Amino acid sequence: MTGSVRPSKGERGVALPTPVIALSVVAVVVAVIIFWVTGGDGDDRDEKIARAGGSPSASASASPKPAKTEAKKPAKAEPSPVDRAKVSVEVYNQSNIGGLASDVAAKATTVGWNVVGEDNWVGSVPENTVYFPQKMKREGEQLADDLGIKRTHLSVEGSMKGDRLTVVLTGPL
Questions:
Q1: Which residue of 87, 122, 139, 171 has the fewest CB atoms within a 10 Å radius of its CB?
Q2: Domain for residue 127, yes or no?
Q3: What is the arrangement of strands in the sheet containing 165-169, beginning at the earlier edge strand?
Q4: How confident is the model over 20-45, as pLDDT tens digits?
Q5: Res 40: pLDDT
Q6: Strand (E) or helix (H) holding 165
Q7: Does residue 9 belong to any structural domain of this protein?
Q8: Is residue 116 part of a domain?
Q9: SS3 at position 39
Q10: Which of 31, 46, 76 is the last residue of a domain?
Q11: Residue 87's Cα: distance from chain center in Å?
């Protein structure tokens, strides 16, 4: 037998019928087209609904622009103020300044934040930073503004809790 390779005794394979392969390819192509048409992310849902609901005509291609403008107007509206008392905050001192975390925690409490802990931090944070979970970005920016901290950053999974803001201090405010 020249040119053919016999599988070894332990090897097994599955031969899929051609219709199964064809349907799989069609399903992938349809999924890619749907992903492309909807834009692929979960944002601007109203805009995507407006695009999907229109009929294919010259006026339909112009309709997404007004829908996009209308969708952005509510985003520019002033968001409700952060309820500081409902947001948990932890303050950590990475510097050699004794009592720094306690002082900053007291300042945050005075402004209305719910400080639930303070301690020392072992790490290499480059400057005073407010870390926030993905869903608490606005609160993190507000805390940074209240404390006079310039740097904010997304929380580090595994090192920080996902339900609160974390302040890491490298020096005085």
A1: 122
A2: yes
A3: 114-120, 88-93, 165-169, 129-132, 151-154
A4: 777 888 888 888 888 777 776 555 44
A5: 61
A6: strand 165-169
A7: no
A8: yes
A9: coil
A10: 76
A11: 18
Top-confidence residue, 154 or 73: 154
The amino acid sitting at 9 is: K
In the predicted structure, residue 145 carries a pLDDT above the cut 60? yes
Most confident stretch, 13-22, 29-38, 56-65, 113-122: 113-122
Pair (91, 72) in one structural domain: no
Structural domain harbouring 64: 18-76
Say yes or no to pLDDT of 88 above 80: yes
The helix/strand/coil state of 71 is helix
State how far the Cα of 30 lies from the Cα of 40, in Å rounded to an integer: 13
Residue 4 lies in a domain: no
CA atoms lying within 13 Å on the CB side of residue 25: 7
Q: What is the C-alpha R_g of the chain?
A: 27
pTM over 0.70: no
What is the chain's percent helix, strand, coil content, to nearest 5? 45, 15, 40
Residue type for position 158: G
| SS3 of 117-159 | EEEECCCCCCCCEEEECHHHHHHHHHHHHHHCCCEEEECCECC
Residue 98 has which token pair? 């004794």
